[in-house]
Amino acid sequence: MYKSAPTSRTRRSRIAGFNMVELVVSMTVLLILTAIAIPSLMRSFRTYQLNDAAARLSDMLKFTRFEAVRRNKRVCFLMQQNSTTGAWTLGTDSNCSATFDTNGKQQVIRGFASILPAGAPPSSASITSTLGAASTLTTLSSTPGSITFDARGAVSPLTAYILYVGCATNPEFGYRAVILLPSGATQVWTAPNRGTWQRIS
Fold first, then answer.
1. What is the C-alpha separation between 24 and 7, in angstroms, rounded?
2. 42 to each of 7, 49, 53, 167, 170, how far by Cα in Å?
3. pLDDT tens digits, residue range 39-83?
4. Would you list the domain boundaries of the chain?
């Protein structure tokens, strides 16, 4: 039996895109998936910011220690906070005169992650118990703050320092702590808000 050719209207309906119902369902699914993914992405981004700030702080301490050994003289690590922006500048101070070297290496910590005073992060008791019962950690969060390395790369005078990194207004993403041992070696620790410290490097 002979079939008539499909009309142009039928052909157009077959090649048409989404109808309104399909479009609404697709957008709803997309919005739900986005709502699920955003908190996870934000947490990953904040974790990256904290790790990056702690790593830059640790690297600057290591660099200053290396400079003291390379120059065979006392070199100071110096950190200062900008009272307007709240940003911290870290760098070397070859003369230990509370001024950065003119052409020296510097790092800036600003934004979400900042250097915090003691009291905001969790207690450092778990760190001191791991390091040894006799360990006493001096918190360095004042501005300007300074640490002196001798020609052998040891802290002078022999002192163990702790520098806290986190966000004072948004503690849910946790904290980082950079430990400087009297020998000049550094460690990085992490802790969730109101949690226990664990060493990560």
1. 29
2. 53, 11, 17, 14, 13
3. 888 889 999 999 999 999 999 999 999 999 999 999 999 999 998
4. 19-57+111-199
Return the pLDDT at 32.
Answer: 85
Structure token digits, residue 175: 């904290």
Instruction: Give 79's strand partners.
Output: 90, 145
pLDDT of amino acid 48: 95
Q: For residues 142 and 80, give the distance between their C-alpha atoms in angstroms, rounded to a whole number.
A: 8
Average pLDDT over residues 17-22: 78
Bridge partner list, 167: none
**Residues 6 or more apart from 101 whose CB is under 8 A from it?**
91, 92, 93, 94
Q: Which residue has the tokens 């109808």?
A: 19
Q: Which two tokens stand for residue 97?
A: 């005169």
**Token output for 158:** 């022999």
Cβ contacts of residue 158 below 8 Å, gap of 6+? 182
Looking up tokens 């697709």 gives 26
Banded model confidence at residue 1, pLDDT cuts 50, 70, 90:
low
